[in-house]
Amino acid sequence: MRRSSFVRRLALGAAVAGVAVPLARHRLRIPRAVTSMVAWQTPLAVAIALPRSRFRDAAVYGAQMWAYVTHYELPNDDHEALLRRVHVNYPIAIDRALGLGEIPTLRLQHALGRPGHVHAHDTALSIVHWSWFGAPHAAVAYILLRHPERFGSSAARVAAVFDFGVAGYFLFPTAPPWWAGNTHALPHVRRIMTEAGERFWGRHWKRLYDSLSGNQLAAMPSLHFATSVMAAHVLADVGPGPGAIGWAYAGALGFALVYLGEHYVADLAAGLALAECVRVLAPRAAPAGRALARLVRALEAPAA
Predict the structure, then answer these.
(1) Which residues have a Cβ under 8 Å from the Cβ of 89 and sit 6 or more positions away?
(2) Per the structure, how many domains does the chain have?
(3) Which domain holds residue 26?
(4) pLDDT tens by residue, 213-227
């Protein structure tokens, strides 16, 4: 009993630290390496601290996403250093080749938009974009509720896409089209999402935008598209109906991201490649996953 109590309390303390340290890193000037290490151990700590249940499964996934959000924001902690490393020109060159001399974002905005005017389809596509903050997680929640036997593998694949993508943001920060337009690397690119947001959300828009814009130089690969593609795959694995919904959403989101000025086509292509690589390589990672599961069970045993 004493050992059980000690293990659970230790794991619970580690889980609390995994949440608190990223929140306090600016005020306490905690080094990024320390923040990273503490954040990444949080899912394991939650798995040991809580008894096995669907709630624990959801909490472990939530802890994994918290670690992802922390690492998504970390490069922007030193914004000046990030600006010195950001890449702007190579996705422009790729998209100009794909668009046969014209950037697809600019082509779409010229064809479907009008500067200074927010159309109904601008707002609709912006809502599709905003919905991404919940869409991949809604797919994982559906699997947990309706097909719990598939939750582990499905959640792991979605989480892996997030994790590998955020590693790319650390190593190779890349600017989106709207940012390139603001720096004159491109002709003016409207950021239609912000125009629609100001009209749709009114006085609440600035607070909402500030809460979600932790790192604006994280465009390659597009995790919006990559995680939506993976969500479509895991939904298709449980039935054609959910799969059709997932793929329809991924397609609509991909179009929205390019039209709204949030991503290049090159970003979407890299996101698609990332999702497909994770899907193909997942069976090869299964032995490592089973070894990790055995470790968790061994640590759970004295805490049971």
Answers:
(1) 185
(2) 2
(3) 1-79
(4) 778 899 999 999 999
